[in-house]
Amino acid sequence: MRRRLLAFAVLVACSVFTLAIARSSFSDPTPQRVGSAACKECHDKQYQQFAGSAHGRAEQDAGRVAGDPGCESCHGPGSLHVQADGDENSPGFKTIKRYAKLSAQEANATCTGCHKAGDQFYWQHSAHARKNVSCVSCHNIHDSKDPGHAKLLSQPTTTAVCITCHKANHFALGKTAHMPVAEGEMTCADCHSPHGSAGPKQIRALTVNELCLTCHADKRGPFLWEHAPVRENCLNCHEAHGSNNDRALAAKRPYLCQRCHVATRHPSTMYDLPDLANSSSNRSLNRSCTNCHPQLHGSNHPSGKYFTR
Ligand code: HEC
Ligand code: HEC
Ligand code: HEC
Ligand code: HEC
Ligand code: HEC
Ligand code: HEC
Ligand code: HEC
Ligand code: HEC
Ligand code: HEC
Ligand code: HEC
Q: What pTM was estimated for this model as a whole?
């Protein structure tokens, strides 16, 4: 009998305790959504910018996304912050999500909650995500600098965004031979996805050659006579980001070729002149290799085995 009484007493104590917890959480309210219009009064600058951006347009056109791309989709429910009425010492004030206080992972999780298709599908596996680069390292939601705020960029152009961090690539843009990136006809993002990709080094193709051949289709082949290093990788001979050799070559000719081909039958320095007995020796200087072997990317001529035609 005593034991039963004890058990009953414990039971009563437990339920009282549970009730107490439940009550206390009712009296400590969680913030609720109040809608973007409630923020306008105090944050008109952010509101106006938001209204004209893709996020603002998506909110007006509610059918476009599941959920609501308003202020609170990024800053969290705002009722307590609004009630604080601008008093920074009120406990509710700080319930608003502040990006300056978030880790890269927390900030990114907000964005990838909606942006998980397209290029952003690859985000988790990108070098950027691994090295704690954040969506808001490159995107400036309220003060973007790109024309029309189309991509909400932190700089006026895509390339300008990249070279704020990638200094070596910045310097490469100034080399004498390069693709027209510095001129603005191409951007880093023509070749790389800032958000990750299925290929190496975030390139927009599965292999380097597939990337290059999307624009340089004349080098695609198939050729009757293939040149093995061209098939393998364009970067056997070219620097993607520019070089001080013409045609963005990785080395000067003829040494470019002689990294692989022995000079025996085509010697290339002044000191090789005694080899004049060899018909081509005295001509194997400077661009000579490609003067006689112009089809080095591959030839379709029946007698093009040596890429001479
Ligand atoms: C009654 C005025 C008022 C309203 C309404 C209001 N805020 Fe604020 N909020 C402030 C003040 C004041 C600050 C501090 C100064 C500042 O950063 O502009 C602030 C700061 C912020 C900050 C930055 C906090 C920080 O420390 O960096 C965010 C984010 C923010 N508010 C979001 C919102 C959102 C979203 C809404 C609508 C749900 C909203 N606010 C509604 C007054 C208000
Ligand atoms: C797409 C996500 C997103 C939406 C939507 C959004 N914000 Fe922000 N907000 C941010 C980020 C990120 C920052 C940090 C600064 C930055 O990167 O621009 C920020 C910063 C702020 C700040 C701090 C001041 C500043 O500029 O740094 C305020 C205030 C603010 N937001 C208010 C609002 C209001 C009001 C709305 C709706 C009209 C809104 N935000 C909509 C992401 C968002
Ligand atoms: C509630 C869902 C949602 C959240 C959260 C969100 N976005 Fe968006 N975002 C959208 C929608 C919807 C669009 C409009 C897409 C369109 O116009 O096709 C958009 C557009 C954009 C655009 C412009 C792209 C374009 O092609 O017009 C960028 C850049 C962007 N978001 C970045 C971000 C970043 C960075 C964050 C995190 C700080 C973020 N978004 C958070 C839903 C969201
Ligand atoms: C390293 C810089 C960088 C980072 C980090 C980054 N972006 Fe972008 N994002 C860009 C650039 C640059 C563009 C515009 C590309 C172009 O020129 O077409 C862009 C474009 C976009 C677009 C427009 C559609 C598209 O894919 O072109 C969306 C949406 C977007 N980013 C969302 C995000 C989200 C979400 C994150 C974080 C998960 C993120 N971005 C991280 C640089 C970045
Ligand atoms: C906020 C700084 C920052 C910005 C801005 C930035 N990056 Fe990066 N990027 C990094 C870091 C950090 C790494 C990782 C470097 C490492 O692992 O050594 C990286 C790595 C890369 C890589 C190598 C990927 C790999 O798999 O190794 C590529 C390609 C790249 N970034 C392209 C871009 C492009 C294109 C842009 C502009 C749209 C850009 N980055 C803007 C910081 C940045
Ligand atoms: C014509 C295409 C192309 C353009 C334009 C381009 N890249 Fe690259 N990038 C490549 C290729 C190809 C690689 C090497 C991939 C590999 O090694 O497999 C690469 C590699 C990289 C790497 C990895 C480190 C390295 O050098 O190997 C970074 C970082 C990078 N690029 C950043 C940039 C930035 C920043 C820009 C703009 C200033 C840019 N790239 C423009 C094609 C390009
Ligand atoms: C997005 C399109 C695009 C991609 C991808 C691309 N290129 Fe180019 N490339 C160009 C353009 C545009 C030019 C300038 C053509 C001109 O001036 O006639 C060019 C020029 C060149 C030149 C001549 C440079 C000079 O100084 O004369 C070489 C070599 C070259 N590309 C190699 C490559 C290689 C290797 C790749 C792959 C890593 C590649 N390209 C990927 C667009 C591209
Ligand atoms: C074996 C070395 C080698 C390889 C590999 C190579 N190239 Fe070249 N490429 C050259 C040389 C040498 C020139 C200069 C030819 C000249 O001046 O007549 C050149 C010139 C070019 C040019 C500019 C002139 C033109 O013919 O349009 C482009 C574009 C180009 N290469 C693209 C590529 C692409 C794309 C690949 C990969 C599919 C590739 N190259 C692989 C050696 C190479
Ligand atoms: C990365 C190494 C490499 C570079 C650089 C290179 N080649 Fe080749 N080349 C090869 C290989 C491998 C073969 C195929 C050899 C074979 O099939 O026996 C080849 C074949 C050839 C052939 C046909 C020879 C034959 O016996 O079928 C010629 C001609 C040739 N290369 C010229 C050049 C010229 C000119 C250059 C410089 C513009 C050059 N190569 C740069 C690796 C290279
Ligand atoms: C004066 C024209 C001429 C010049 C310059 C020239 N070649 Fe040749 N090369 C030929 C001819 C023609 C052949 C065809 C084979 C033959 O008839 O001996 C050939 C054959 C080759 C072969 C295949 C046979 C072998 O010897 O392995 C290679 C590889 C080659 N050349 C590479 C080069 C390289 C590398 C250079 C630059 C250092 C170069 N050639 C400069 C005309 C030239």
A: 0.91
